[in-house]
Amino acid sequence: MSKNSSEYLINRKDKQYEVVIGLEVHAQVLSESKLFSTSATKFGAEPNTQVSLVDAAFPGMLPVINEFCVKQAIKTGIGLNAKINNRSVFDRKNYFYADLPQGYQISQFKDPIVGEGKVILDMPDGQKEVGIERLHLEQDAGKSIHDLDPQNTFVDLNRSGVALMEIVSKPDLRSPDEVSVYIKKLRSIMQYLGTCDGNMQEGSLRADVNISVRAKGSKEFGTRCEIKNVNSIKFMQMAIEYEANRQVNLIEEGKLIDQETRLFDTKKNETRSMRSKEDAHDYRYFPDPDLLPLEVSDEFIDELKKDIPELPDVKKKRFIDKFKLSPYEATILVSDINIAKYFEEVVAKMGKNKDIKLAVNWITGELFAVLNKKNLEISQSPVSAKNLAILINLIKNGTISGKIAKTVFELMLEGDKDPQKIVEEKGLKQQSDPKTIEALIDKIINDNREKAIEYKQGKEKLFGFFVGQTMKASGGKANPQLINEILKKKL
Ligand code: ADP
Ligand code: MG
Fold it and tell me: What's the pLDDT score for residue 5?
């Protein structure tokens, strides 16, 4: 197996295979009520407490489309640079399952609300465009719970009827890394738009992963397998690696690949056959007679366009142009809307004489390290943007050294303390008085006469020793630049 940044190839004897991946992402619409009923959608509620007669499919109940969910889907389509269809149709996808009381899922099939679009991925070796096939609205099913009782299965209908956007990509992805960047990009676009919270642990974002392999350079696609309902990026990547290698092994043995639906066993780290691939006609799709075709005017769409905030790609460009960030730095800062907000707040609070480079380094360095360690989102940061800005200014104007700043930062973590106060209270101000530093240096040279002579005789490495001693004598507070200057004169 060879990996060249985003390229993923599988080597066998004299042959190289590439993997072809297309994703069907199910994104839960951020909405307080369901797609066709007024029930709540809160995560983690007691089972069966957010179920209306519509969601439980009582006889005679009729679905009523939730306009807000429609708007959310259209906004997402706009964010995916996609064509919004003025007319779309809700169909019934018929199948039997205990957690599907209707006996069918209402889903857009032939005429989805959003057509073709595209998403740009920032890969280490450049940008890559991934085509979007469509985005359609559909209902989620309930949840069967098999592990609470050895004899019984329980059904929780809280999720039944929750609005999902299924975002179908073209088979344009070529590696586990691209899949990871793609999912993160979709998530960030939807977070910016406020159309999906992207929380994978809570199941707000999951994907069916379609995988095939082919000889590198071949124009034709191989037969694909679809791995159902994978709910973490790590698992998607593991499933792709396993599945691609399984398919290559079959081909190498001269066998054919069955087009089938598989599942990923996260404990064994392998994919397993679930069923042979169903076809659309198996579901007996037909337009839901309870719902009219959904018609949206151009004016309706244009109104929504006015609501679209600055999206990640545009923000990234602005950060590069305005703040002179590198594309790499800008990509990190725009990846999450709250990180971008935090960064811009720090910049604003730094005032006129600001050091943006320093701010980027502190956010992506010290601050991210703390957030990672404490497993916190930036919105829960123990240090506010305002106080971080003050800290950075203290470094910039020479009040404290970068080294002392790290000590101050540690203290700031306890209750978002004002760094200015910490510096005063703890007497951490940088020692920038040449006289005081000179006195320290005189004493150190005096105490280390032999080393001073060795230095003069050419042992230049010893300069660092003197810097270190002076720093230590000052309690880490002496201005390093001044130490350097004065030492050079004195030695
Ligand atoms: P369904 O799974 O409902 O039959 P589609 O035919 O629309 O739906 O394809 C679903 C997904 O499979 C899409 O994301 C598409 O990009 C992907 N796909 C199609 N053909 C291949 C292939 N040969 N290899 C990998 N992915 C594929
Ligand atoms: Mg599918």
Answer: 57
- Cβ atoms of 440 and 474 within 8 Å: the answer is yes
- The torsion angles phi and psi of 307, rounded to 5 degrees, stand at -85, -10
Quick one: which of 45, 30, 37 has its CA closest to 337? 30
Residue-level length of the chain: 491
H or E stretch including 297?
A: none
Complete domains list, the chain, with CATH: 2-305 (no CATH), 312-426 (no CATH), 434-490 (1.10.10.410)
Residue 490 has pLDDT above 80, yes or no: yes
More confident residue, 398 or 9: 9
Neighbours of 141 (CB within 10 A): 21
Rounded to the nearest whole angstrom, what is the distance from the C-alpha of residue 237 to the centroid of ligand 2?
Answer: 18
For ligand 2, the distance from its centroid to the CA atom of residue 226, given in whole angstroms, is 7
> Which ligand lies nearest to the CA atom of residue 136 in the structure?
1
With contact defined as beta carbons under 8 Å apart, do 418 and 390 qualify? yes
CA dihedral 288, 290, 293, 295 (to 10 degrees): -140
User: Which pLDDT belongs to residue 3?
Assistant: 45
Query: For 402-420, what is each residue's pLDDT tens digit?
Result: 888 999 999 999 989 999 9
> Nearest-CA neighbor of 55 among 173, 135, 141?
141
What are the backbone dihedrals phi and psi of residue 323, each rounded to the nearest 5 degrees, phi first? Answer: -105, 5
Question: Which ligand approaches the C-alpha of residue 243 most closely?
Answer: 1
Ramachandran sector of residue 323 (left: φ over 0; alpha: ψ -120 to 50; beta: rest)? alpha
pLDDT bin (cut points 50, 70, 90) of residue 227 is very high
Q: Please give the distance, rounded to the nearest whole angstrom, from the Cα atom of residue 433 to the centre of ligand 1.
A: 70
269-298 per-position pLDDT tens digit: 999 998 887 787 889 999 999 999 999 999
Q: Is the pLDDT assigned to residue 166 strictly greater than 90?
A: yes
* pTM for the model: 0.88
Map tokens 């995988």 to a residue.
211
**pLDDT of amino acid 7:** 79
Ligand 1 first shell, C-beta below 6 A: 20-24, 168-171, 210-212, 221-222, 224, 226
Which of 17, 25, 26, 210 is the best mutation target for the ligand 1 pocket, counting ligand atoms within 8 Å of the beta carbon and taking the most? 210
Output the six-digit token pair for 398: 């020479």
Centroid of ligand 1 to alpha carbon of 323 (angstroms): 41
